[in-house]
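tl;dr need the bound structure. longer version: we got a ligand (adenosine-5'-triphosphate) that a collaborator sent over and nobodys looked at where it sits. i said id run it. heres the input, straight from their email, havent touched it
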Amino acid sequence: MIALSARGLYKDFRGFRATNDVSLDVEEGEIHAIIGPNGAGKTTLFNLLSGYLKPTRGEVRLYDELISHLSPEEIVRRGLSRSFQISSVFSSLSVLDNVVVALQSRSGLPAQFWRPERVMRQFEPRALELLEQVHLTGLAGRLAADLSHGEKRQLEIALSLTQEPRVLLLDEPTSGMGSEGVARVIRLVREVARGRTVVLVEHNMSVVAELAHRITVLQYGSVLASGAYEDVRRDPRVIEAYLGEEVA
Ligand SMILES: Nc1ncnc2c1ncn2[C@@H]1O[C@H](COP(=O)(O)OP(=O)(O)OP(=O)(O)O)[C@@H](O)[C@H]1O
């Protein structure tokens, strides 16, 4: 079953074509990596898939339902959630309260920080479950500002999971991390991918090699190659354009 698909996507910015006839199928349950050199159009494609940009032409479907005309919030409600390269964490709140606030805003109750404690506390058990999933239980009481970079990424994944997504988009989940953090995120992505479809933009090729079932390589806004990691990494056009000796 195809969880997420794009057909003939184009995005033009004042005459500059950042996305050029991109078609893509992501199967349910797979981890799909989108890679490509700087400026290849990865972020633009992510924005198109998650509704933050509207395509100039083409369409995006989530489980066969057309979503490319919907707002990001409506797309989230249909089961596609996305983490950002730029942190969406509230630094002045504790780790636990970040997740509580995210659960509260998903519940449809208006986001009010002066909401009575007892209303907020009803979200705590679920928040603690999510923190356990991302291995942050021990840091629940810590101020988010005091988390390490890697821990913040773990918290961001927990925030995305509050939406109970069927499809999760992760924007460079290992960016700026040391090898220990990278190994932790690889494990975590594998765990959250159980029973879920994951699409990630990732620069670190060893992360892609470890995680991705299939990859799509972008170049100048177009799909250069797409398929199983093992096949794509041997594609001479891909080696020439991007991968080089790193994985060849
Ligand atoms: N809002 C915009 N207006 C004009 N040009 C844009 C806009 N957004 C992106 N671009 C251009 O589109 C191209 C693709 O950018 P994009 O950020 O999608 O690439 P990327 O593959 O994510 O790059 P990186 O790996 O550096 O993050 C770039 O040339 C960029 O300058």
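gonna send this back to them w/ a short note. Residues 5 and 35 are 17 Å apart (CA to CA).
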